[in-house]
Write a structure and sequence with these properties.
The protein is an all-alpha fold. The chain has six helices and no strands.
Length: 107
């Protein structure tokens, strides 16, 4: 499954917002694409798109996540994780899960 250029930007920005600054993502995505089950790969992609398009639901701004400052993006992710909207909450959980895989991965 190839990532489009916009999806790559979304993926890297959202994972970087979840991960500590010292966590490198070099090569993780290729290994993730090879090793992860198809359902997780597609769920991760869908979660990224949903979180990218949903700041209006959490930070009350009619925009996409690329227009948010780092502080606003952190707030968006935090509110998504605690949202009463099941779908939004699960999307944040999937992104957080993949970020955990990236942070614990040993090349």
């Amino acid at each position: 499954m190839l990532w489009t250029r916009p999806e790559t930007v979304w993926r890297d920005r959202l994972l970087s917002a979840v991960l500590p600054e010292s966590s490198p993502l070099d090569g993780f995505h290729d290994r993730f694409e090879e090793a992860a089950p198809a359902m997780l790969r597609w769920g991760f992609r869908a979660s990224l798109i949903a979180l990218w398009l949903s700041p209006a639901l959490t930070v009350r701004r009619w925009t996409v996540a690329s227009q948010l400052s780092e502080k606003q993006l952190d707030e968006h992710l935090l509110r998504s994780r605690g949202s009463s909207n099941y779908l939004l909450r699960q999307c944040a959980t999937v992104v957080q899960l993949v970020a955990c895989f990236a942070s614990w991965e040993q090349p």
